[in-house]
Amino acid sequence: xxxxxxxxxxxxxxxxxxxxxxxxxxxxxxxxxxxxxxxxxxxxxxxxxxxxxxxxxxxxxxxxxxxxxxxxxxxxxxxxxxxxxxxxxxxxxxxxxxxxxxxxxxxxxxxxxxxxxxxxxxxxxxxxxxxxxxxxxxxxxxxxxxxxxxxxxxxxxxxxxxxxxxxxxxxxxxxxxxxxxxxxxxxxxxxxxxxxxxxxxxxxxxxxxxxxxxxxxxxxxxxxxxxxxxxxxxxxxxxxxxxxxxxxxxxxxxxxxxxxxxxxxxxxxxxxxxxxxxxxxxxxxxxxxxxxxxxxxxxxxxxxxxxxxxxxxxxxxxxxxxxxxxxxxxxxxxxxxxxxxxxxxxxxxxxxxxxxxxxxxxxxxxxxxxxxxxxxxxxxxxxxxxxxxxxxxxxxxxxxxxxxxxxxxxxxxxxxxxxxxxxxxxxxxxxxxxxxxxxxxxxxxxxxxxxxxxxxxxxxxxxxxxxxxxxxxxxxxxxxxxxxxxxxxxxxxxxxxxxxxxxxxxxxxxxxxxxxxxxxxxxxxxxxxxxxx
Amino acid sequence: xxxxxxxxxxxxxxxxxxxxxxxxxxxxxxxxxxxxxxxxxxxxxxxxxxxxxxxxxxxxxxxxxxxxxxxxxxxxxxxxxxxxxxxxxxxxxxxxxxxxxxxxxxxxxxxxxxxxxxxxxxxxxxxxxxxxxxxxxxxxxxxxxxxxxxxxxxxxxxxxxxxxxxxxxxxxxxxxxxxxxxxxxxxxxxxxxxxxxxxxxxxxxxxxxxxxxxxxxxxxxxxxxxxxxxxxxxxxxxxxxxxxxxxxxxxxxxxxxxxxxxxxxxxxxxxxxxxxxxxxxxxxxxxxxxxxxxxxxxxxxxxxxxxxxxxxxxxxxxxxxxxxxxxxxxxxxxxxxxxxxxxxxxxxxxxxxxxxxxxxxxxxxxxxxxxxxxxxxxxxxxxxxxxxxxxxxxxxxxxxxxxxxxxxxxxxxxxxxxxxxxxxxxxxxxxxxxxxxxxxxxxxxxxxxxxxxxxxxxxxxxxxxxxxxxxxxxxxxxxxxxxxxxxxxxxxxxxxxxxxxxxxxxxxxxxxxxxxxxxxxxxxxxxxxxxxx
Lengths: 533, 533
Prior knowledge:
The structure is a homodimer.
Chain A: E1 4-10, H1 26-39, E2 43-47, H2 53-60, E3 69-75, H3 87-95, E4 99-105, H4 108-115, H5 119-135, E5 139-145, H6 147-153, H7 155-166, E6 172-176, H8 184-194, E7 203-206, H9 214-223, E8 228-231, H10 245-254, H11 256-259, E9 262-264, H12 274-285, E10 302-303, H13 306-314, E11 332-333, H14 341-350, H15 360-375, H16 383-394, E12 402-412, E13 418-428, E14 431-439, H17 442-451, H18 461-464, E15 468-476, E16 485-492, E17 499-505, H19 508-526
Helix pairs in contact in A: 1-2, 1-12, 5-7, 6-7, 8-9, 13-14, 15-16, 16-19, 17-19
Family (chains A, B): Belongs to the alpha-IPM synthase/homocitrate synthase family.
InterPro entries (chains A, B): 2-isopropylmalate_synth_dimer, AIPM/Hcit_synth_CS, Aldolase_TIM, Citramal_synthase, LeuA/HCS_post-cat, LeuA_allosteric_dom_sf, PYR_CT
Protein name (chains A, B): Citramalate synthase
């Protein structure tokens, strides 16, 4: 069967850049464009040349994309001057891209309120702008702003805006749900009408997520005949974001109703790069990735409930709609007080402990986890603390450094000077070692007292030299005076694999201390340090 | 026209609790349930009694909901024992809720792989479990796990599972897209078939977001005739989450195609509480709210681009699909420090300070706020600290208690005993006062040293007697060793109006101290205490 072609248009660098808090550098844009070209999207909208220095500079770079057409964005020419004399259009011509996309009005209310011109004048601006770029041999896209709202208000006028561009040779007419308020059933209904006038092979959809339906609206448009889909990596975009291409692309490839009818320029083997592509954007934005993103989120294939876990182990299809590896993601079994035995067993397996389900130690470990979670522990983000707990119950962990006592103090004197200091008394092989340190705060002082004095720790010195804390988090669990503090610490070393530990106590110092000691113990255990005599 | 009723079922406390990283305390659950009851959802699924200590304890509490039916969750009875002798069902009977929801298999593949029983036995387990609770006069809901996958594999069997529950008196048959892989067009097609056998007035939908379509799938089901919709606050849930009720509820109320056909138990005036409800959950989870959530996100009505901003100022309808105030959200124009000024002025007005925009003190206050927010302060949620700062710059705040120095220490001895103690030297009217105290942790000790000794504070004693701290929160802002700690304190007194203060420092003790001193100062200021001589 001949499949129909779908075209993917990425606007991360243009519409995505309009997001509050997003401020790409030229370098950022180059990195993202390269990732998109490698992925194989059809169009990369690079920005609006002339609108800001970053975009202008980006288009001045030499771009050599293998798969994607670089597209510059602008708006239809102003009233009262010819297309040839419009500085906005000139900036786009100078950007020298194979494709040009112009936004123009298709809602009469906007023509009146925002532009303050007549409906006829707007049509003329659309057709002359189109003619201008078609003459320049650009692949021309007309982005019909507010098309769906415009259609609801004045369908005849909205359609005539599309026709003005199509009749002058526009390759694509993009139906834009600018305010994002259109629902899927309306998309279906309206596209079914539009397609009577504009062929589906020339129609595109640009959806926003203001009702949580950007992905569904894009799919509805495709079912109704649209063949060009605009969106961004991770759904980045103003307000509630654009349609998320990281959700749409895998759906087109992995869901049979789509894959049996449609084909894309993106190679099937490239969709395993989607997770990496999603994370790249967060890295550039210095954001914590959203773990719950469809297909590519870190938790998208996490299983926590006990019943789910035992079934997934028998056959992953039981609780997974696709195989996570197809999109470059992975399965993740979580341990918590929701867990049953099977979570524990499968998690033990991943750390190399093979144990029978009937072994009474499993029940003991599960009870211990549940009891601890009840008082505030949470093992689903604390792999190292879980491993230590499990090994202490099931097999054994040597005793390493014994911390006999500590004393932490924070003093503020009458000049306002604050000194945080700590003293800890440790024992290694029967020898008492006193360590002292200062820090920014009490926890930092205690950490410094121990870790800045690793030279004193005799046989453990070499194991702890490269230990580094990379993150420290505090959460107060209850409210009022009976508050419980949970501290999570993320640690790393020169081998580069991070581990996570946890401590819980009514006392923040004690909670931090517990998490810190777990981190030291885990480091000594994984590096096979000898026990303390 | 007679409108049809839609029923909203919230499963934040059950399915939402299965999310990686989420572990509600009993108190958390009570707070969320109260918010849901106030909102007016039809059903609150509280958890799985017997599955973990938190859920068991939650159901033991006395619940008196005004609008919502508390629902307990479990699974259909096991094979090989009667419903009366099934400990799982007994735990649900003992939970004593007006409604009971049981999950059961409807995909033959699962009956075989996960349960390892015959298809007939599964049907029997469904019908007998239903019968059991109907006899107990519970409102019974059957949650047909994996219904859509089951229907695709063996439609006849999947339907017979539903019939087994309906025929024994189930009120609702909930079609669950457990793995979340079903697409909207499939929901439409399959529900259109199901409804030939099971009336729409008995049908529910439970959608997951694994393809980014949970909201759209719920809407598609409603269009196809389903009248009961399950979801969670903010779409909280395992993997990619559940259908987000904070998106669905406003769509039902604010989009005419829905509001003209359907009505809900939720009162129209209550949807302005949705933003608050969404933020409450993040607050309990100690998470940064997702700014881009449809309707309720802080950026859902943010306008950045210059063109958009100028049009929105002419008429907000130009770039907003609804009026943000309808859901308790607000418009946010991201522009110059000019808009900052008008924010500050309007905020000063609410605390009773009238000041002209041209007054140079406005600029000074704005700069101070910006500098402080840059280092980690956040005055959004710290009304009392903002008022103190503003009054100190614009008018004046008397000097009350001077805290000259303090000394806080935490000691752990070799028996594991931890003692937290604090000593503070205060000055009132030139007289030095030394206060000492102990506590659960260093902050609590410092707080006790000051507030448990208010008797010593001479003329301030009577003002501070009824001061109480009701909440204490800590957030670590940066990562690594350069971490900054932000402490927020919520305080109250016998007049019952709470106030919020904030302290930021590299040192958690100092940050807590600052927030505490602001709380004392604010209390003395608002109660018109005299200045210290």
